[in-house]
Amino acid sequence: MRKKRFDGMNCTIARALDQVGDWWTLLIIREATQGATRFDEFQNGLGIARNILTSRLERLIELEIMERFPLECRANTDGYRLTRKGEELYPVLVTLKQWGDRWVAPNGKPTTRLVTADSGHSIQKITVHGPDGKPLSYRDVRFVPGPGATASTREVIENRNLRVLGEP
Fold first, then answer.
1. Distance between alpha carbon 107 and the CA centroid of its chain, in Å?
2. Is 36 helix (H, G, I), strand (E, B) or coil?
3. Cα–Cα distance between 11 and 114 in angstroms, integer?
4. Rounded Cα distance, 67 and 46, in Å
5. Nearest to 79 by CA among 23, 44, 35
6. How many CB atoms lie within 10 A of CB 52?
7. Is residue 15 packed enough to be buried (19+ CB in 10 Å), middle (13-18) or exposed (0-12)?
């Protein structure tokens, strides 16, 4: 069964999932944020089949989320690293980890903590904030059309605001 593609949808969440929504893809990105650069490091860290890893790495390179670079310690061998586009996925991974720590950690005990490299203090929970710094839920946010909004997007926004906020 072929995976449905979302790259034609007028929704940036769907389009982002089209690029990184596969679980292996996010785990490869996680491994890169943990210092993996060589193919064998990704494969050993994930226990992923070579063919699947190869196809995911190729796709991440095609999408400019990762790039190849020559490994100095190994002649004629390339490594893999995140591009700026890939590095900007780090808050997504941290948010997913924080959600997992709260809701699915084995025995309710997270296996790792994230602390700042310089002070060793725990990082803050990632949340959505208003201009005043107040944490917001989806019930506190109004959608408005962006520059790429189509007529159907405007209808979705109006319906969403009506259902969630009680007003268009």
1. 25
2. coil
3. 31
4. 19
5. 35
6. 14
7. middle
Residue 48 C-alpha from the chain's centroid? 19
Q: How confident is the model over 12-61, as pLDDT tens digits?
A: 888 898 889 889 999 999 999 999 999 999 999 999 999 999 999 999 99
> For 144-167, how does the pLDDT look when each residue is reduced to its tens digit (9 = 90+)?
999 999 999 999 999 999 999 998
Q: HEC states along 58-93?
A: HHHHHCCCEEEEECCCCCCCEEEEECHHHHCCHHHH
Dihedral sign, Cα of residue 94, residue 97, residue 101, residue 106? negative
CB 32 within 8 A of CB 81: yes
Q: Hunting for tokens 């890893």 — which residue is that?
A: 53
Rounded Cα distance, 168 and 160, in Å: 8
**Contact assessment for residue 96 and residue 113, using Cβ atoms and an 8 Å cutoff:** no
Query: Do 159 and 165 touch, CB atoms closer than 8 A?
Result: no
To which residue do tokens 């699947």 refer? Answer: 52
